[in-house]
């Protein structure tokens, strides 16, 4: 965390300027400030009057100007809009803050000149072992009152070099709250083609051309907030949006990023030794692939340092092996290079853990991916493997694979996305309950035997390895005791850990004292409890039709939580 005044927060590590005027190309067209806020556009004490984005691709660096105006309608809104902040990556971006103003009674009170900006580093995904190095320029605006309009503006410059200067963006034009006016503008040289795709009745752009520059503009007025339909797949776009992309096709993306996964010369000594061991002990392609997967998962722990180019570019294998940590890109590169040396057909593949099933409906763009896995082909069978998972000890045909819809393999000659197969409906859990009922003053003997398979078996096996059996079983007992406070453990055992078939069996036995509850003058009740399934079920929104269902793919759940940028 750092801080400083408007005059001294600029440095090599904190690039940017305060009190700078917007560039000449920026259109500062006025917006309407009503005497009272339209009640349909008030949310959390604020009415958003203007959301204005202007993108310029004419200069040497991409410039993204942003202006926002908010009318405060309640004290809670003043608390919120008084916090000004801009996120940026100092490795390739800089910020110029133009204006932080309060408009009150027709008078404009400008705070930028005297603002004491703070530069904060907030790693939002630190608990997930992901570090992106992004900074936040922050300022608390003084004296914001009900009835004020708070207007802020800044420009963000630059983008990653690995994107080869190609522009891409996914811009929402509607949100959960209504906005009185939304503006979007893009300036490009005439010879620079940016493709567009509109979603959910986004407005058509209006275009003008002058001096070899194309100026396109989109505008939306008085769109109320959108209440998204519940239980829709994450890749479903429910609001008006616009995708912009300078990438011609998926071949363009693959050609740009495939060379980043190449490796010249010998591999690190430790890796060479492991390759030799696998070659000597594993005669089959399946056995070799499984051994490489276990090595990539176990020898290199997961840690994503995604600062600057690290968000899109894997590190050298020498660095990965010396530090013994890496993210999805590093681990996939390690797996691929080892597999190729062992005669296997493997390559990294880029996927999207949230929007993957709709990638074929999006414009080609390098910015559409958030995870890297491995595509492995043995004969006619293709495997999709994730080296960021904890060690998958089962044979290759039993390990849980990835199911993310569409993938882009990183290899020469790739021209299109490849459809990843959908999983078969998984049989993940079997639960057997045995209840011995005795006299009312004696404990009830309750036994659970639970068999976990495939992805659930891997997750439970990992939990026991990570936390230890004593700790896991203690948490199980505490779960039972939340229902029956006087339950006592009789036995807790791992009956079988069948790695070859990838299932894991646990048995728990409890004596439950004071288990009976009165149900009348001469009756008592004892109700069983589902420990295996109930925790995975959530109540449906009452507004959703009872015929609606949701399909959950547990094989993807953990991978999505581990993916890096």
Please give the CATH architecture of the largest domain. Sandwich
How many structural units, i.e. domains?
3
Tally of separate helices: 9
The SS-based structural class is: alpha+beta
Mean pLDDT: 87
Distance between the termini: 23 Å
Calculate Rg over CA atoms.
Answer: 29 Å
Structure notes:
The chain is of the alpha+beta class. Helix 3 runs antiparallel to helix 4 (285-298), helix 4 (285-298) packs antiparallel against helix 6 (328-341) and helix 7 (454-467) crosses helix 8 (469-483).
Features:
Immunoglobulin-like; C8orf32 fold; 3 domains; ten-stranded mixed β-sheet; 9 helices; disordered C terminus
In summary, what is this structure?
The chain has about 575 residues and is an alpha+beta fold. It folds into three domains: about 1-245, Immunoglobulin-like, CATH 2.60.40.3140; about 255-420, C8orf32 fold; about 430-535, no CATH class.
